Each structure stands twice: as C-alpha cells, then as structure tokens.
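I'll show an entry:

:::
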Amino acid sequence: MTRIPHETSGEPNPFRALTLDRLRCRTSMKWRAYPDDVLPLWVAEMDVPLAEPVVRALTDALALGDTGYPAGTGYAEALAGFAAKRWGWDGLAVARTAIVPDVMLGVVEMLKLVTGPGDPVVVNSPVYPPFYQFVEHMDRRVVEAPLGPDLRIDLDTLDETFRRVTGSGRRAAFLLCSPHNPTGTVHTAAELSAVAALADRHGVRVVADEIHAPLTAGGAEFVPYLSVPGGESGLSLMSASKAWNLAGLKAALALAGPAAADLARLPEEVSHGPSHLGVIAHTAALRDGTGWLDALLAGLDDNRRLLADLLAEHLPAITYRPGEATYLAWLDCRALGLDEDPADVFLHRGRVALNSGIPFGTGGAGHVRLNLATSPELITEAVRRMAAALD
C-alpha cells in the first residue's frame, strides 16, 4: 500500500481554541461526572471545537429539517476515499459494508454472527473495558491473551490461547483492538499477518475494532486488518467518532473482507440504530475534515512530548511510552507504591480524574489512562496536581 503522509494543514491547533470556563459549559459525561474542582482527563472525549465542515453539514441539515432516517452509501464511500488516501488501501468495497449504530454495538452484532452463546472471545489485555462488559452481557466468555512486556501482541501467547479455546470444538472469535486502547500501539503489517495466520490455523474469526485508526501519530503507519494476507475472512468496525469527537452523533460502519459473507445475515433492524445526523456528520468529517484532522494530529504529537517532559521532571517514577496512535496515555505508576489503583489517589488527593487501569483487565493494576486530547495548560496543571498528591 502507498500511504500519503499527514499534511501540514495550516489550520490552528484545536487544543488551544477553548478555555477551561468554556469547556465547563459542556453537559457531556466528561465535564459533568465530577465536581468543578476536578480536572477531567479520563473518558474519550476531546476538548476541541468541531471541525468546520462538520458544523456546516449539520447546520445545513437542521435548516432543511433533514432529520429523518439514514439512507444511501455516502458514509461508506467517504470512508473508502479516506482509506485510499490516508492508508493507501483501495480494498474497502462499499458493497461489503453495513451501517451500525456505533462501533461497540457493531462489535456485538459481528460477534453474534460468528459465535454463539457461551463461546469464547479472545482479547489482548490490558484492553478497553467495554470489551469485557459488552461481550459478557451478550453471553459470551472473555478469554485474555495478555500483551507482552513491550505492550505488543504476544504471538506465542495468542497461539496457545487460540489452541486452548478451540480445543473443545467450540466456535471462537478474536476481538482485536487496532490501534490498541489503552497502549496506543499500532500493529504492524507483519504482526497482523501473523494474527491472521494463527486465526486461520485454529479456525478463529477475527473482529477488529479500528475506531482509532485515523488518530495515528506522525511516523507510524496504520494497517487495516482486512488488507493483510489472511485478513480476507475478517470483519472490522470503523467510525469517524474518535478522530473528530463525534461520540454523541451515533454512526459506524461494519466492513467485511472479500472472503467473509457474514454481513448478509445481519438483521435489517440493526441499520435502524444509527442517527441520520450522525451519518451526515461522519461523512462530512471523512470527506472534508482532513485539514482539521492534520492540525489535531500535530497538536497530539506536541501533547505527547509535553507529557513525557512533564512526567520526567515531576513524576520520574511513572513509566510512560508515548503511543503511536489514539489520544490516550497509558501510565505505569507501580513504582509510586500506591497499591493497585493510583487513579483513586490522584482523584481524591490531586483532584485529577483519570481512568483506573483495573477495569482494563490483566496488566492494568497499578496503571492509569490519561486523556491527552486537551490544552497544554490543562496537561501541565494535571501533572502538577498529580505530583502534589504524592507530597
């Protein structure tokens, strides 16, 4: 694949656009879950204004009263164009896509297609907590294949886990997080090809959550799972939600590889869940919002460097490996001696809200996840408060 690198958009850094007072006017989860004296650097919402093309598309739709049910393939066509330009992938066939309410509900529907009640679903812990919650709620069994010490997929562990879960003859699936949340790891083409080979050997179906794919840092290369050799039988979920801060505007796409006929069995009512305004917003982001995205990615690169410098100066016992994607930082706080949940200490003593590592599964205890998608000033103040919490 020939990938076009991130461009210099000329747009301003969106993380410098909103003041703390302005952000506190928001009514979404990030800004309403804690009292006003807490800095919220936890849930995956970004402290940015919307990209202008998205605002314009939504404003036009509202002016027209275009608030009915979604129709057509514009969203899939926009994603195909984005994938071709950004990742050099021209294999996203619109005919092999289906609209779903959001990525996690899409994951549920894909797992229903390839597994049955009680079947195992393998995950690479530590991993996004809803993987556990949604899978267990749908009466499947989560089986962990922990990441290696380098926070990458441990292929030997994955091989052994696949062998174990399929030994009884049950169907099994692998729920792949790519790029990985919370570590920010971007899986290489070689790693993904190895995963596909293992899945084929053991008869495991792969469902890839690729929601963070547009948020790949400069110098890293996102590889769609469906594009690698052996990935033809895979299923993927993609969305503009994370990269353009559209979580409240529900819409996502399920993608099937050329050897996967599963989407034909997707219940028709699943397509009723997405918001028409969500589809409009996501389509506009993918088609016309890439300049804004490039400015955002540059701001994230700056924020990763800033956080690394601040931690080295004020909290050198915390281990931080800047991720290659996402706007999330995975911090190893075990050397601080704060027991299993340092997030509790940073909240109650420092008034900084971070995600506890414990719900991320094996490997999460003693860690916190910090949301970098905010202003440099708030990151600086958060680290100052975290350091003061240890005094």
In short: Residues 101 and 274 are 4 Å apart (CA to CA). Confidence is low (pLDDT under 50) at residues 1-6. The two ends are 51 Å apart (CA to CA).
